[in-house]
Write a structure and sequence with these properties.
The protein is α/β, with parallel strands linked by helices. The chain contains nine helices and 14 strands. The protein has two domains: about 90 residues, Alpha-Beta Plaits, CATH 3.30.70.260; about 160 residues, Rossmann fold. The strands form three sheets. A seven-stranded mixed beta sheet has the order 10-9-8-11-12-14-13. About 40% of the residues are buried.
């Protein structure tokens, strides 16, 4: 049996520092059209070590080799092509798990601790969410995940129904359940993310509150997320700026009047253009960490 691998592109930038916000935005907008699954920023070298001063690198994972190759062809045509080197790679699935296990430890976001299984016992706290690192985005180590966790903790979730769009690892759905949500529906278009989220829901013993479904924005199945077909009190969408703009109407339909909408997955520079797409919601707050942002709306 052949070893499972993930199609990826290694993007290497000219300087040790992270790419500029302008280049980051351009890259994300380009890659969003090609079934992007995850981005590991400054991944370890093949020996598993992260070296200070090394060339800044992204490892970008795709759903298929065809998507990866199409993304590479698109990157080759961009005006900023000279600012990065592009390498086509296939990453062994077990290598992803091994690298993350060596690199990731528990992180704290206000009153929530997100920890991998090997570090969970060392991290006592009010709420501990245990996440097995995988290709499902959301270990708490990316700014957008942390921003969504902060936004959730600003809300009173008791007896409220939550929808988590693009759930990835399930970390936000699980956190919402632990914060008191009466029910959480977690959706993702990717089969591997759905499997990962279900495993993490079971690992955190919130299966009575959280249901994980495979669905994409725009699917008719979203209209039947639960038997009542009523909108949710809180909707979280940690996606990309391009997808959030394109599917704004579908996202807004999932939120009840006076309900809360939390959006992230984009840079501070992209925040205004994302906000402009949500014409049936009033912007209440913008949270920021480094160059990343989250927006909190109230549905009109």
């Amino acid at each position: 049996m052949s070893e499972k691998t993930w199609p990826a592109l290694r993007l290497m930038f000219g300087e040790p520092s992270a790419p500029s916000s302008v280049l980051t935005e351009a890259l994300l907008l380009t890659l969003d059209d090609f079934a992007l699954r995850a981005i590991d920023e400054s991944p370890p070298s093949p020996d598993g070590l992260r070296r200070t001063g090394a060339q800044s690198t992204w490892l970008v994972f795709f759903a298929s080799s065809e998507s990866r190759d199409a993304a590479r062809a698109a990157l080759e045509q961009t005006p900023w092509r000279a600012e990065l080197d592009i390498e086509r790679v296939d990453v062994p699935d077990e290598d992803w798990a091994g690298r993350t296990q060596r690199a990731l430890t528990a992180i704290r976001v206000d009153d929530i601790i997100v920890a991998p299984p090997w570090d969970a016992g060392k991290s006592p706290g009010p709420l501990v969410v245990v996440i097995e690192p995988s290709m499902g985005f959301g270990t708490g180590h990316h700014e957008t995940t942390r921003l969504c966790l902060r936004a959730l903790q600003r809300l009173r979730l008791a007896e409220r129904r939550v929808i988590d769009i693009g759930t990835g690892s399930g970390v936000l759905a699980i956190a919402a359940a632990m914060l008191g949500a009466a029910g959480v529906i977690a959706i993702d278009a990717d089969e591997n993310a759905v499997t990962s989220a279900r495993d993490n829901v079971a690992r955190n013993r919130v299966g009575d509150q959280v249901r994980v479904r495979q669905a994409a924005l725009g699917d008719s199945s979203l209209e039947a997320l639960d038997q009542s077909r009523s909108p949710a009190s809180v909707v979280i969408a940690n996606l990309t700026a391009a997808l959030l703009r394109r599917e704004a109407a579908a996202v807004e339909r999932l939120v009840e009047a006076d309900g809360t909408l939390i959006l992230s997955g984009f840079t501070c520079a992209e925040a205004p253009v994302v906000a402009d797409a949500y014409t049936h919601a009033a912007l209440e707050a913008q949270l920021e960490e480094n160059d990343w942002a989250a927006l909190i709306f109230v549905r009109r």
